[in-house]
């Protein structure tokens, strides 16, 4: 049984949950998905990997640092204490990993620029260099990357990997292609 924690702060959480379930079916892996809303919920379970969906990073910082939740500092601690465990962070999730703003070190070695392609109407779909269908919604852009590049768009990094920790500026849960969720689950296993 693989136990996946998902941060329920904001964003397309339910599509990530569906994608994880579909990927688990494909791979014939038993999966339990734990929805995390508070730091207590994270401390009560032993998770094998963490999914950090996109949304609006400003809102996620507010809700995640709220005294009633405190999920965000708990997540950053968990990631720092479990350096080998898989994390899949998408879009705003990638912003939070690159720039946790908690006084600690960044969780991926990359600089990232929010809303760097423009606003909502500048959102777009484009095939990545590896052929993956990328869905970019008010997406951020890596401005410098020190960790290995996981994937690129026209030669520009749109995904960064630090061990089992992956940060993508696009939304794999919206693409209908389960590759990233399958890889994440296999790493959790
Ligand atoms: N624009 C958002 C931010 O700055 C990220 C967009 C997304 O997660 N789809 O946080």
Q: How does the SSE layout of this entry go?
A:
Layout: E1 2-7, H1 13-27, E2 31-36, H2 39-43, E3 49-52, H3 57-65, H4 71-81, E4 87-90, H5 92-98, E5 110-113, E6 124-127, E7 133-136, E8 141-145, E9 149-153, E10 156-162, E11 165-168, H6 179-188
Helix pairs in contact: 1-6
The structure holds glutamine (GLN).
CATH T-level fold name: Rossmann fold
Number of strands: 11
* CATH architecture field: 3-Layer(aba) Sandwich
Distance N to C terminus:
8 Å
The level 1 CATH classification is Alpha Beta
* Total domain modules: 1
CATH superfamily: Class I glutamine amidotransferase (GATase) domain
**Principal-axes shape call:** globular
Radius of gyration: 15 Å
Share of β-strand residues = 25-35%
> Count of helices?
6
Distinct ligand kinds: glutamine
């Amino acid at each position: 049984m693989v136990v996946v924690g998902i941060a329920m702060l904001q964003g397309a959480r339910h599509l990530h949950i569906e994608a994880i379930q579909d990927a688990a079916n494909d791979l014939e892996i038993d999966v339990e998905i734990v929805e995390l809303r508070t730091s207590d919920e994270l401390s009560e379970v032993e998770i094998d990997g963490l999914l950090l969906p996109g949304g609006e990073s400003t809102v996620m910082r507010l809700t995640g640092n709220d005294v009633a939740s405190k999920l965000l500092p708990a997540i950053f601690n968990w990631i720092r204490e479990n350096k080998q465990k898989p994390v899949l962070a998408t879009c705003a999730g990638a912003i939070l990993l690159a720039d946790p703003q908690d006084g600690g070190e960044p969780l991926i070695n990359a600089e990232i620029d929010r809303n760097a392609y423009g606003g909502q109407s500048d959102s777009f779909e484009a095939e990545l260099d590896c052929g993956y269908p990328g869905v970019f919604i008010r997406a951020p852009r890596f401005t410098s990357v020190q960790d290995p590049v996981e994937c690129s768009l026209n030669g520009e990094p749109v995904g960064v990997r630090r061990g089992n920790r992956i940060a993508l500026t696009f939304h794999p849960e919206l693409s209908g292609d389960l590759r990233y969720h399958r890889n994440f689950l296999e790493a959790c296993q």
